Amino acid sequence: MPTRKARTTWTGGLQDGAGKVELVSSGLATFDVSFPKRVAEEAEGTTSPEELIAAAHAACYAMALSAGIAAAGGTPESLVVDVEVRLGPDPAGGFRIPDIAITVRGKVGGLDEEGFVKAANDAKLGCPVSKALTGTTITLDAALA
């Protein structure tokens, strides 16, 4: 199975420093990162580990759900998956990701709402990124569009 790679270069301290995250395997992009912007309400043109996790989780979940719909006898026509990853304080000190919220709306042939929701819940459990995030509360809001 493949291995993917990303790299971050960082200069300076936590509060006054900045970095760049590079998607090495694909070569598709390099993104700015900054701790003050990471903890601010507005990202102002920078990304964060939480946003990158949200992107990875949304893509992985969409793939897992697409496979699950087909396995249940349905035909996935379109899926819109939104993932919110929240950064919060850790009672032990520092920060942690206390929860992740997945919202999915789908257009699916051959499955009713109940079948879609079951496939959506199964995908939440089976998605490799969900599995990697064990220990974080992951909620799901799934419905047909």
CATH architecture label name of the largest domain: 2-Layer Sandwich
Q: How many alpha or pi helices? A: 4
- Give the structural class: alpha+beta
Number of domains: 2
What does this molecule look like?
- The protein is α+β, with helices and mostly antiparallel strands.
- It has two domains: 6-38, no CATH class; 49-144, GMP Synthetase, Chain A, domain 3 (2-Layer Sandwich).
- 32% of the residues lie in helices and 37% in strands.
- The protein is built from four helices and six strands.
- A three-stranded antiparallel β-sheet has the order 1-2-3. A three-stranded mixed β-sheet has the order 4-5-6, with helices on one face.
- A hairpin with a 6-residue loop joins strand 1 and strand 2 (18-23).
- Helix 2 packs across helix 3 (113-126).
- The longest helix has 23 residues, at 49-71.
- The mean pLDDT is 97.
Task: Summarize, please.
This protein has 145 residues and is of the alpha+beta class. It is 32% helix and 37% strand. The chain folds into two domains: 6-38, no CATH class; 49-144, K homology (KH) domain (GMP Synthetase, Chain A, domain 3, 2-Layer Sandwich).
Topology, element by element:
Layout lengths: L5 E6 L6 E6 L6 E4 L1 H4 L10 H23 L3 E15 L5 E15 L3 H14 L1 H5 L4 E8 L1
Helix pairs in contact: 2-3
Brief descriptors of the model:
145 residues, alpha+beta, GMP Synthetase, Chain A, domain 3, 2 domains, 3-stranded antiparallel sheet, 3-stranded mixed sheet, 6 strands, elongated
